[in-house]
Automatic annotation (TrEMBL):
SUPFAM superfamilies: GlnB-like (SSF54913). It comes from Marine Group I thaumarchaeote. InterPro entries: CutA_tolerance, Ion_tolerance_CutA, N-reg_PII-like_a/b, N-reg_PII/ATP_PRibTrfase_C. GO terms for biological process: response to metal ion. This is Divalent-cation tolerance protein CutA. One of its GO terms (molecular function) is copper ion binding. It comes from the Archaea. Belongs to the CutA family. It holds the Pfam family CutA1.
């Protein structure tokens, strides 16, 4: 079993918290870390400077596709970021917890 982190940004704490709770309840992720960030990006030809919330969804390779599909379905953005980070190394006690929490 391999660990995977899915990264996404959200417009509000309420939206990310609601989605994170649904994802963990469905056991698609063992944990979701949420932090407030400032983002600079272009949208519809204009430079935007916005506060957003970055979420790290910690899961396993087995759950990655289902988790991504669920994020696409629930995400409030028209064009959500749903990026995958494959983890090369992780301590075994954490990996066991991750697998146990997502099975």
């Amino acid at each position: 079993m391999k660990p995977v982190i899915i990264v996404s940004t959200f417009p509000s704490k309420q939206s990310v918290t609601s989605i994170a709770n649904q994802i963990v309840k469905k056991k698609l992720a063992a944990c979701v870390n949420i932090t407030k960030i400032s983002s600079v990006y272009t949208w519809k030809g204009k430079i935007e400077n916005q506060d957003e919330y970055l979420a790290l969804f910690k899961t396993t390779k087995k759950n990655q596709l289902t988790l991504k599909k669920e994020l696409e379905k629930l995400h409030p953005y028209d064009v959500p970021e749903i990026a995958e980070i494959n983890v090369e190394s992780i301590n075994q006690p954490y990996m066991k917890w991750l697998v146990d929490s997502t099975n």
